[in-house]
Amino acid sequence: HMKRVNISAPDFEFDGDDPEGFRSGLARLGKALGGEDSGISVYELPPGQAVCPYHYEVGEEEWLLVLAGHPTLRTPDGSERLDPWDVVRFPKGPTGAHGIRNETGEPARVLMFSTVVIPTATVYPDSDKVGIWTGDPESDVLVHRDAAVEYFDGEDGRGW
Fold it and tell me: How far apart are CA 117 and CA 3, in angstroms?
C-alpha cells in the first residue's frame, strides 16, 4: 500500500551544528515518501529559533502553512505575525524572499511545500551569499557574491 506520514507527530531531527537562532527541528516528509518533483517538510520552531536564513529561491516556488503557534514571517514588505492555518506562497525570485522565526514564548510548527528543481540556486540577501545546488554534493557551492570571477578567469585559450 501507499506510504504515509502523519504530520501530527513527525519524527523531528535537530542538527547540533546549527547556530543559535537557527535551531529548528526538521521532518523531511517529501524525502520519506519518495517525492521527486515536489517536497514537504515540517519544522518545529522553539522560541527564538528560525527555519533558515532569510532567502529566496531562483528555481523553486515555496509555500508555508502554519500548523501551530504564531511565527513571524519576514518578506520584502516587512514582518508580520502569522496564525495557525495561515497559508503563504513565495514565488521564485526576489519578491518571494522570506524568513520564518518564532518570536513568541511558545513552540510553533510550520509545514513548507515546494517544487523541487535540480539544478537551482538560492540567494541570501542579508549575508550576500548565493548557493548553487547541482544534485551532486561534490559540485554544490555556497559563496559570497563578491567571490565572483570573470567568465574567462583561469582559462588558457591555447587549447587543452
Answer: 23
Nearest alpha carbon to residue 8 among 42, 48, 47, 32: 42
- What does the pLDDT look like over 95-136, one tens digit per residue? 999 999 999 999 999 999 999 999 999 999 999 999 999 999
CA atoms within 13 A on the CB side of 151: 1
Say whether pLDDT at 137 is over 80. Answer: yes
Within 9-151, strands assigned E span 25-28, 38-45, 56-57, 62-68, 72-75, 78-81, 87-90, 99-101, 108-115, 120-124, 129-133, 141-144
CB 74 within 8 A of CB 54: yes
Its pTM stands at: 0.91
Identify the residue with better confidence: 45 or 11.
Answer: 45
Residue in 135, 109, 139, 114 with CA at minimum distance from that of residue 56: 114
* Gap between the Cα atoms of 113 and 65, Å rounded: 8
**Whole-number average pLDDT of the chain:** 95
Count of other CB atoms within 10 angstroms of residue 76: 12
Cα end-to-end distance, the chain, whole Å? 54
- DSSP bridge pairs for 59: none
